[in-house]
Amino acid sequence: MSEMSDRKSRSKPIRLGVLLSGGGRTLLNMLEGIKAGELPAEVAVVIASRQCKGVERAADAALAVHVVPYKDMPDSAAYSAKLAELLDDAAVDLVCLAGFLSFWEIPDRYLGRVMNIHPALLPRFGGTGMYGHHVHEAVLAAGCKVSGCTVHFVNNEYDAGPIVVQKAVPVLEGDTPDTLAARIFEQECLAYPEAISLFAEGRLKIEGNICHVLPA
After folding, report:
1. Domain boundary assignment for the chain
2. What's this model's pTM, rounded to 2 decimal places?
3. Could you tell me which CATH class the domain 13-110 is placed in?
4. N or C terminus: which one in the chain shows less Cβ crowding within 10 Å?
5. Sequential pLDDT tens for the chain (216 residues)
């Protein structure tokens, strides 16, 4: 993936497409940042892989929202094409995966324009099946003393794209997947807006599998 965000000042907020499958807490965090004037973006469209709380929250916020279940499409290629079509129609600048559990085969025109947040410090504890509490359970089972979250650009391999922002948290004695997840989510609420802002400011440059953050 060789695409990079353009390093230029923008006169208007970037347009986000948010893909989700669950409660929509990450979407709410983005909306709060936008309302506070801290995130130079607007949510142009929300796409959900199933009916979920996130769909309700998007509708309550008067956002354009589409539910596209994988099982309703004939195959992966058709599903991926439908997602790209909806994102194209909304003229999004950046796609943000927010707990999206269906596989999207990203077309070339979107490489370098799709981010994800993962609840661990990649490249450890990533890959197929490593999402949500599965990640925190694995971290605890490995006896790690530090965990955290990672915002990364997405390619067509699970959790393998260039890393943009990471935040670390200590793993405490007596932690459960729930307590660890709660502390990590606090950092996710900081990391994702930071990464989106860097993209909006044109300060991210991708070389191979390395994402460089350019000075302001």
Report:
1. 13-110, 116-216
2. 0.93
3. alpha beta
4. C
5. 334 444 444 558 999 999 999 999 999 999 999 999 999 999 999 999 999 999 999 999 999 999 999 999 999 999 999 999 999 999 999 999 999 999 999 999 999 999 999 999 999 999 988 999 999 999 999 999 999 999 999 999 989 999 999 999 999 999 999 999 999 999 999 999 999 999 999 999 999 999 999 999
Do the beta carbons of residue 198 and residue 104 sit within 8 Å? no
Sorted by sequence, the CB contacts under 8 Å of residue 204 that are 6+ apart come out as 4, 5, 164, 198, 211, 212, 213, 214
Domains 13-110 and 116-216 belong to one CATH topology:
yes
Return d(Cα 31, Cα 60) in angstroms, integer: 12
CA pair distance 130, 79, nearest whole angstrom = 22
- The identity of residue 54, as a single letter, is G
Give CA–CA dist 157/200, Å, rounded: 25
CATH architecture classification, 116-216: 3-Layer(aba) Sandwich (3.40)
What one-character-per-residue DSSP string does 202-216 give? T-EEEETTEEEE---
Question: Alpha-carbon distance 66 to 48, whole Å?
Answer: 6
Q: Please indicate whether residue 118 is annotated as part of the active site.
A: yes
Calpha distance 185→29 (Å, rounded): 11
